[in-house]
Amino acid sequence: MVFRASMDLEGVIRSHPIKKDSWKTVLTLAYQSLGVVYGDLSTSPLYVYRSTFAEDIHLSETNEEIYGVLSFVFWTITLVPLFNSLPNCQLADEELSEYTKDGIESNKRNIGWRLKLTLEKYRVLQRLLLVLALIGTCMVIGDGVLTPTISVFSAVSGMQFPFPKEQHRYVEVPVACIILVFLFALQHYGTHRVGFLFAPIVITWLFCISAIGVYNIFCWNPYVYQALSPYYMYKFLKKTQSKGWMSLGGILLCITGSEAMFADLGHFSQLSIKIAFTCIVYPSLILAYMGQAAYISKNHDIAKVHPIGFYVSVPDKIRWPVLVIAILAAVVGSQAIITGTFSIIKQCSALGCFPRVKLVHTSSKKHGQIYNPEINWTLMLLCLAVTIGFRDTKRMGNAAGLAIITGMLVTTCLMSLVIVLCWNRSIFLAISFIFFFGSIEALYFSASLIKFLEGAWVPIALSFIFLIVMYVWHYGTLKKYEFDVQSKVSINWLLGLGPGLGIVRVKGIGLIHTELVSGIPAIFSHFVTNLPAFHQVVVFLCIKSVPVPHVRPDERFLVGRVGPKEYRLYRCIARYGYRDIQKDDNEFEKDLVCSIAEFIRSERPAVCVVGTEDTENGEKLTVVGTSSSNVEGIRLCEDDGSISEMVGASELREIKPPEMPRKRVRFVVPESPQIDMDARQELRELMEAREAGLAFIMGHSYVRAKKGSSLMKKIVINFGYDFLRRNFREPTFSLSIPYASTLEVGMIYYV
């Protein structure tokens, strides 16, 4: 994202082909995606016609009204979810944000490069872009509240047939609330378990609605296919005029859940999502809508008894079984947007745009499948509040429709920038894209916004609250980082202390966690000034989230020196994409120590090798992978680990420390190339330090607005950001380290 570009110091990230999944894996994921991704989109026939004809649109003998609605539904589903899911991307698309220097040099003269420079030059444009992206994100989160509500409530509304008209409302709300509580209670089991549990339900539901659709087509109106002509859209709007335009907010609901196709990409692959939609979901939905239209076109009088909707077109003999399947499918349908909400909040948190929440990884095989307990229960409470407050499908549909179309409209605007900035395509292509899709979405947006007082105010209110939280968090995080940059200690201060740093150096590794990617953090000088003793090996560690989906293991670390070699000060930047999973503390410690050892082994004096980065203080950072990704590099053996299991003994030699304290540590290095004596001595010291143990030095910051700040800034920093920082979770890194080895250093930040 443009607004974070100034905060990231990137190493050279090379493009690599993404490993293809086997067909067995793809088909398995496609099967699971039916239960997680497409449940919501599949249940839209429950409420589309009911919400559309709630605008006092009367049916005529020519059936122009029902044919027009069917035509709108068909072309909306075809142009939005189907057109966007067709194979139009490459496997390398996920790495488009991983820039290379060659790519930058070759694009300096095109429009995209000039547009990028303009965005980076003017802070006001960056803020506008940030707010636009946050609005779209907040609307998706709001959709996570409204879509489960309308899906479950619409399914339960089928109880209007066995109960008297004045009594069924007293049954719908309690039953809907019980189902919603059950739904959110299932989330901690994880996407893969829920997917296998829910997929058979969705398949049964799709078969059911398509079979009913085919029955109604042949039984009532075999010529309903004529309504697929776009000419009927024109006739519909011409005849119904303002009421028809307002009814577009109900038609919009036919693509409810299509955004989950893209929000859930962290849970499933692109190919699996495409296969499930084009082969199963799309044809079933079209048959279902055509069947409802065929029945309604020959039964105009039904509107006088019951609201026009899905259940009126279901034959009486199978209405109860269909009601049960519909309720189960509605539960599944809600799963799609809930899963998407988990994913988008995780990615926002990784980019510094949302306070940290607990992430539970529910699958050991698929890295993107997560569960957020706090978000889960918050969504549940909001869903119950909307259900009890509205108790009406019409107002729920108005609210959900505005949330959906606003998110899509923002996505279209941002996508036009991606076409120019990331894909380096013609600006005319971007304009054509935003004109085509934007005009469709703007039409639906205007029809949804006009219903502000009839329920559409809910997503605006929810989005406003989430927008304030996200913007305050991002603003406070950015100001804190800027203070760190301005307050960092110069290298001259370090050189003036000498190799001993003017303090007592004790055995062990001191791991200083910092947000800085260059320079010496103020926390270090603050610590040694008040406690003149430190470890023999010091590592300035930065855990950084970069704006790309994944960072390959062989590009995980950037390692370099801080000061002369005899100081034994190192900098290590661990880079993670916003869809990557950080390892547990034991594996991370081993990878970290191995990366430093590999840097020591491969370092060449006064030589700038490929894969290095120069920082502003003259530090050279070398790209080093994890130990598992570098089979020819140094390996770390601890305790009773067997070397022969890792590599052949003929290819390796051991460097052993002179003493064997309580933990036995060895480095296993390749025979070639030869290591000089200085490097061998440095590796011995690193082993001794590792045996003595690691100590984690964490900064505990108190952020305050500096004197002379505006009243608004004082409110945002002293109250808003401070409240969020105190009540949300610590960084993932600090949560995974042993508290017995942690030392917190308090500092006050005046920003």
Task: Walk me through the topology.
Elements (H helix, E strand, L loop, with lengths): L22 H14 L2 H4 L5 H5 L11 H22 L15 H6 L4 H11 L1 H34 L12 H17 L5 H30 L10 H10 L1 H10 L8 H4 L6 H28 L21 H32 L9 E2 L8 E2 L1 H18 L2 H29 L5 H23 L7 H31 L3 H7 L6 E10 L8 H9 L2 E14 L10 E5 L7 E9 L7 H18 L9 E3 L5 E5 L10 E4 L13 E4 L9 E6 L6 H16 L1 E11 L6 H17 L4 H5 L5 E9 L1
Parallel strand pairs: 3-4, 3-12, 4-6, 12-13
Antiparallel strand pairs: 1-2, 5-6, 5-8, 7-8, 9-11, 10-11
Helix pairs in contact: 1-9, 1-13, 4-10, 4-13, 7-8, 7-14, 7-15, 7-16, 7-18, 8-15, 9-13, 9-14, 10-11, 11-17, 16-17, 16-18, 18-23, 21-22
Total number of strands: 13
Strand percent estimate: 5-15%
Average pLDDT rating = 77
Helix content: 40-55%
Q: How widely separated are the two ends?
A: 23 Å
Question: What Rg is obtained from the alpha carbons, in whole angstroms?
Answer: 30 Å
Q: What's the arrangement of strands in the largest beta sheet?
A: 7-8-5-6-4-3-12-13
- Major β-sheet profile: 8 strands, mixed
The general outline is elongated
Unreliably modeled segments: 1-19, 86-108, 605-616, 640-653
How large is the count of helical segments?
24
Structural classification: alpha/beta
Membrane topology: Multi-pass membrane protein
Keywords: Ion transport, Membrane, Potassium, Potassium transport, Transmembrane, Transmembrane helix, Transport
InterPro entries: K+_transporter (IPR003855), K_trans_C (IPR053952), K_trans_N (IPR053951)
Transmembrane segments: 128-150, 170-189, 196-224, 244-263, 275-298, 318-338, 375-393, 399-420, 427-450, 456-473
